[in-house]
Amino acid sequence: MYRILLVDDERHVLDWISELLGELDGHELDVYKAETVTEALAWLNRCRVDIVVSDIAMPGMTGLELHGKIRERWPECKVIFLTGYTDFEFAYQAVKNEAVGYILKTEDDDVIVETVRKAIVQIEESERKERLVRQAEERVKAAIPMLRNEGLAALLRGEPGTFEDREAMFRDLEIALDPGKPVMAAVSRLDERRQEGGDGTQTSRVSALRLAVACVCDTLEGRNAKLAHATVDGDLVWLVQFDSGAGLEEPVSSKLLMETLDEAHTVCRESLGQSLSTVMAEGGVSWAELALRYPKLQQGLVRQMLYASGFIMLEGGLADRGRETSGEGISVANVAIERNRWDALRADLEKGNRERFMRGLEEIEQLTRRGQLSLQDSAGLEAFGHLSLLLLSAMNRWEMRELSSDASLVGKLASAERHSSLQEAFAFVREKADAIFDRLGEKREHGEYKVIEYVREYISQHLHKGISLVELAEAVYFNPSYLSRLFKEATGRSVTAYLADLRLERAVAMLRENCKIGDIAAAVGIDSPAYFSRFFKKMTGRTPQEYREEFILGNRS
């Protein structure tokens, strides 16, 4: 969709050019007309304009002066000057002002059409180049943090093993740590349980993690410390080295790191209502030892979080608690690690992605089967609780009263005892999730249907005013491009084509009622009877008068 603004103080010129632009096949155009510079500036302030075709000698402000205003408001807008003058100075100034074209009104129609086509090609090429540059910049910008995170995750797995490999990786990924010195390591995790003031959403959780990172980075920067952090399996892993030149003994460094992480805990809790828990390794850890210590820190954190939240402690202070284990050795701790799967499942449900939701649900069910979980153990009940909460939240959020008012459905989601097995509960959830997706689809389609019906009614009632896409979009509070795409998807026709068909339909009805051509033109939003005649002939192959005569003759016979 390209927006074209025509600026000329002669109405017949505006209608003539507007008609010519209808010959630009393959391009959807939204054409606006302005007979004064004031009208033109109003359109430029109202919406983005892609191309301006302007008389170079407008009263009150020359086309060249208008071009300066256009460049200030829409720098990428293409300007075509249209004039009856052949003066060389005008042509020179037009080229100097980087106009796309300079056209004499006496030239052939094809010249005007081709010049506008050339402007569209330039816009498309410019957009393509900008898109490529933007994509390249985004890839470069995104690559370093992502690769850095992957590199640190590899370190936690014991890769790379040599000093030289670490040194090269740290240099390439801009990791500030010394590859030859031990690090202080810690692992933090957000508690799944909602805290007072927290909304528990994925956005809030991500915000909490970012806030924690920012807090720790800012604090350690002033304490002669080097920091690297990574997100691994949903946990924040901290690797810190204090500058040996600061004269800090290891116990003091550990205390400083613990105090810093505690500050991050406090900020997350007080600012976002999110509870962060952390386990720190005792003393410095060599790079070779890191791959062995990290899993212990992670597992210890998971075990401790079964009994407490919001804590920060050294690994030596972890409670030596037994681990509930299934028949095949899958522990509650390992089940808890899969919490990110629930987040993904929730996101797919909220986005209406049925296929991905069902695939994720199947993967989780397979995990429970391998772990031999049931509704008689805590891990199985936890899984059931996640499933129930997902569906209940969705029904409430989208006001699906026909589902949420079903006492039997709600009862089965609220009570594990209503199911003979965890597998049966999964089957029930799968069935009801299908119903939710179906209802969600109906709600969305109905919402779009209401918008399209409103637009059609609005067009019908305001056709005589000469409606624009921008006006329609403002009426339904949508972006013009989005409304154009939505309308075409729903009706199979563009807004422009629908307007043309409706104008023709109304014009034909009025011709059959023997109305005057001028009255018909005004009724369908076309100011000029001559332009209406050209529009009608283009649509039907006959002039309005020829159509009227054929209709009268047909009735007589």
- The CATH topology name of the largest domain reads Alpha-Beta Plaits
Shape: elongated
Helix content: 55-70%
Query: What's the quaternary structure here?
Result: single chain
* Category by helix and strand content: alpha/beta
Number of E-state strands: 10
How many individual helices?
22
Beta fraction of the residues? Answer: 5-15%
* Strand adjacency order, main sheet: 2-1-3-4-5
CATH top level assignment of the largest domain? Alpha Beta
CA-CA gap between termini: 46 Å
Major sheet: 5 strands, parallel
Ranges with pLDDT <50 over ≥5 residues? Answer: 193-198, 319-338
What average pLDDT do the residues reach? Answer: 80
GO biological process, one term: phosphorelay signal transduction system
Keywords: DNA-binding, Phosphoprotein, Transcription, Transcription regulation
GO molecular function: DNA-binding transcription factor activity; sequence-specific DNA binding
Protein name: Two-component system response regulator YesN
